Every structure is written in structure tokens, then in C-alpha cells.
Amino acid sequence: xxxxxxxxPTRRRLVLGSASPARLGLLKQAGLDPEVIVSGVDExxxxxxxxxxxxxxxxxxKADTVAALPEARDALxxxxxxxxxxxxxxxxxxxxxxxxxARWKAMRGRxxxxxxxxxxxxxxxGRRAAATASTTVHFAxxxxxxxxxxxxxxxxxxxxxxFTLDGYSAPFVRGIEGDxxxxxxxxxxxxxxxxxxxxxxxxxxxxxxxx
Length: 211
Fold this sequence. Notes:
The protein has about 210 residues and is an alpha/beta fold.
């Protein structure tokens, strides 16, 4: 008599509550395939005492908003948000090209701390885990002409701190201390830890297991 085959566990749905293509790219490169549901949270309306706390407040607000939607039922929702801490201030996306130029003139030759808040909510049971990852970024000393050329690409208007490691501004970053993915938008090691806090193995979410 043939043995009854063991059913393959159903992979949990993963939802990214962010419009960031960089975050989506990091998750896909790590073998995950999340759905995207943009939270629409008004980031300017939220405040916190420190940049690290602000990053977590923003991430939690995004995760909460998406988790409350019917289409996120029984899913694992990830909310993330990043700010650059410079001189104790939290710098998100610049307001315009003039703001981006001023940011880079203030950052060049110095170091800042990229803070990314992460919040994971299991909507099947309401459990959550959240934390902020921090990476020190050492900026090079681009000339005024280089800054103007970079701002003209439009890239800095769409990223926290007006820079990114995986784009036009990469040559203007001398080095980092910490997780590079965190600077791009999401720390995969921290995500693994947060999922483990919810008794979920990140490896159980790998898409290749569906084959």
C-alpha cells in the first residue's frame, strides 16, 4: 500500500507596505516575492524625539495602515522607512533640487547615520516585531559641479538623505560601517531576526520552494 504523501506547507503571503523599488529589489534578490501595497501614510505628519525613533514610528505607521486593509488578511506585512541622521537631525527625502543641493554641500566630507525602521506584522494573529537598524555612512567630497550634475539626475529627490548606494551617488560614498542593504532601504539580517521573533523562518518564505 502506498504511503500517503506529506502535504507541502503553504508559503505565507508576504506584503511590502512601501513603494520603494529598492526595497522590493532587495527582497527579490533574497529569494522572496512580496506583494506591494502602498500605505499612503503622510510621513510629514509624524514626529519623534530622535531620528532612530522617527524611523521606527514611520515604519510602524506604514505597517499598521497596510495590515488593517482587507487585502492584507493572513499576510506578513513589512513596513520600512529610512532617515539620515546628520547633526542630530532626521533628513528624509529632500523637498526639491535646491534642498538636495544644500544637503549634499552639508554632507560632503562628513559622516551620517542611516536609520531604517522595520516593522513586521502577522495579520493572522496580530503579533508584531519592530526595530531600527543603523549604518554609518562616510561621504566623499564631491565638487559643486559634481553635486549639480548628481542633482540634475533627479535621483536624490526620491531617496532618504538625498543619496543611495546603488545609484548615481555611489561614487560619492567613501565607505560604510554596517549593513549596506540597510542604506539601500531594508536590512535583511534584521528582517530575519524580526521574523524569528514571530516564530517564522525567513527560509520558509523563499519562492524556490514552490517549484
